[in-house]
Amino acid sequence: MSRLAVRRWTVGTIAIVVSVVVFLVPFAFILVTAAKTAPEASTLSFSWPAEWKLWDNIAAVLADRDGILIRAFVNSIVLTVASVVIMVVLAAMVGYVLQRKKSRWNGIINFFVLAGLIVPPAVVPTIWVLQGLGLFKTLGGLILIEATFGLSFCILLFRAFVSTIPRELDEAALIDGAGPIRLFFQIVLPLLKPVIVTVIVVQAVAVFNDFANPLYFLPGDANATVQLTLYAYASSSTSAGQLNLLFADILLITIPPLVMYVFFNRQIVAGMTSGAIKG
């Protein structure tokens, strides 16, 4: 076996071991603890359950507090879909214009785009603005917050990918009589499919798993998201001695993002690297 083959085999083995330790072991611990009875789960030991109670525990979590977890899933899905749609449409248009149209404003706009990645969000001023607009404690206000916080990253991705699209396509479409709106939505946007998939998966997982922003800007049981139900469930006196139900809640919340990554991980890598290779 050549040295290159040995090096590849070693790197692959290390990567598999690290993946098992970092991802599979914690998930297995969550699964077996969620399947235990309350006394067994309270020991927090990594052992096989004496009696499987997984479905009973999941049913108890879904029925807890008048089905707040189901309402939270609905709120999180609405929040995720609306935020990601706004991010994809706005970031694609801004990235396209920044890459194609050179003007004296590009430097200022790029400064604000990079500032969006570097400057941490200010909670109190943001709440003050939302209260002034009548959007505080509303799902619409949180959708705008999530979309705003994710725009900078998305704009950079779209701008890098647009640089790989030949300008001749724009010129050909303009010669054929296409206007700016038709040029973007019928010619350019379909070509951005790889990076659109990347943005959808990455930002959907980020928004769905976000805990801090819903806690600050959307308090209250009626507006709860899945992460807030976990926080409330862990801190409530009802679940203090029922870690099996707490881990069943964690298991239900973990499944949707995990499924997205399993099915779309190749598209994420393709979208992240395509702009870097051709740019």
Automatic annotation (TrEMBL):
<dbReference type="InterPro" id="IPR035906">
    <property type="entry name" value="MetI-like_sf"/>
</dbReference>
<keyword id="KW-0762">Sugar transport</keyword>
<keyword id="KW-1003">Cell membrane</keyword>
<keyword id="KW-0813">Transport</keyword>
<feature type="transmembrane region" description="Helical">
    <location>
        <begin position="12"/>
        <end position="35"/>
    </location>
</feature>
<keyword id="KW-0812">Transmembrane</keyword>
<feature type="transmembrane region" description="Helical">
    <location>
        <begin position="72"/>
        <end position="96"/>
    </location>
</feature>
<keyword id="KW-1133">Transmembrane helix</keyword>
<comment type="similarity">
    <text>Belongs to the binding-protein-dependent transport system permease family.</text>
</comment>
<feature type="transmembrane region" description="Helical">
    <location>
        <begin position="108"/>
        <end position="130"/>
    </location>
</feature>
<dbReference type="Pfam" id="PF00528">
    <property type="entry name" value="BPD_transp_1"/>
</dbReference>
<dbReference type="GO" id="GO:0005886">
    <property type="term" value="C:plasma membrane"/>
</dbReference>
<feature type="transmembrane region" description="Helical">
    <location>
        <begin position="183"/>
        <end position="208"/>
    </location>
</feature>
<feature type="transmembrane region" description="Helical">
    <location>
        <begin position="142"/>
        <end position="162"/>
    </location>
</feature>
<feature type="transmembrane region" description="Helical">
    <location>
        <begin position="245"/>
        <end position="264"/>
    </location>
</feature>
<protein>
    <submittedName>
        <fullName>ABC-type sugar transport system, permease component</fullName>
    </submittedName>
</protein>
<feature type="domain" description="ABC transmembrane type-1">
    <location>
        <begin position="73"/>
        <end position="264"/>
    </location>
</feature>
<dbReference type="InterPro" id="IPR000515">
    <property type="entry name" value="MetI-like"/>
</dbReference>
<keyword id="KW-0472">Membrane</keyword>
<dbReference type="GO" id="GO:0055085">
    <property type="term" value="P:transmembrane transport"/>
</dbReference>
